[in-house]
């Protein structure tokens, strides 16, 4: 069964193109490690709630846009093997070198987690 890594971040709206370039440069590594699909989704209709919402979750500021992303893996074993390689690759692969591919957002406010699908409909 597939496995999903999900992410929510706040990106300065002015950094949209930098974010796209960063994602295009770095995300290929996940595909090389076995990911099936990666989606980076720029917030378009993200309402502010009265109790909770995506904005509060990542402490988004007025000049930031909420981004929702996920990586689809064929299974948890493939994902775990890939994550096991990431520490080494972060020190050896330029795509993860913060000087050569800096994150255009505050990674300290990113929320993420791994999820096992329990209902799958469609293709």
Please render the helix and strand layout as text.
Layout: E1 3-12, H1 16-26, H2 28-32, E2 37-42, H3 54-57, E3 64-73, H4 76-92, E4 111-115
Antiparallel strand pairs: 1-3, 1-4, 2-3
Describe the structure.
By secondary structure, this protein is α+β, with helices and mostly antiparallel strands. The chain has one domain: Alpha-Beta Plaits (2-Layer Sandwich). 30% of the residues lie in helices and 25% in strands. The protein has helices at 16-26, 28-32, 54-57, 76-92, and strands at residues 3-12, 37-42, 64-73, 111-115. It has a 4-stranded antiparallel beta sheet with strand order 2-3-1-4. 15% of the residues are buried.
What is shown here, in short?
With 123 residues, the chain is α+β, with helices and mostly antiparallel strands. It has four helices and four strands; from the N terminus they run βααβαβαβ.
The appropriate CATH architecture is 2-Layer Sandwich
Q: Which CATH first-tier class would you pick?
A: Alpha Beta
Task: Label the overall shape.
Answer: globular
How many domains would you count in the coordinates? 1
Query: How large, in whole angstroms, is the Cα Rg?
Result: 15 Å
**Structural class category:** alpha+beta
Largest sheet, in brief, is: 4 strands, antiparallel
Q: What helical percentage do the residues reach?
A: 25-40%
What do we call the CATH topology?
Alpha-Beta Plaits
SS field, number of helical segments: 4
Low-confidence stretches: none
Look at the structure and give the mean pLDDT.
Answer: 93
- Biggest sheet, spatial arrangement of strands: 2-3-1-4
| DSSP strand count | 4
Amino-to-carboxy terminus distance: 14 Å
Q: Spell the H/E element sequence.
A: EHHEHEHE
Tell me what portion of residues adopts beta-strand conformation: 25-35%
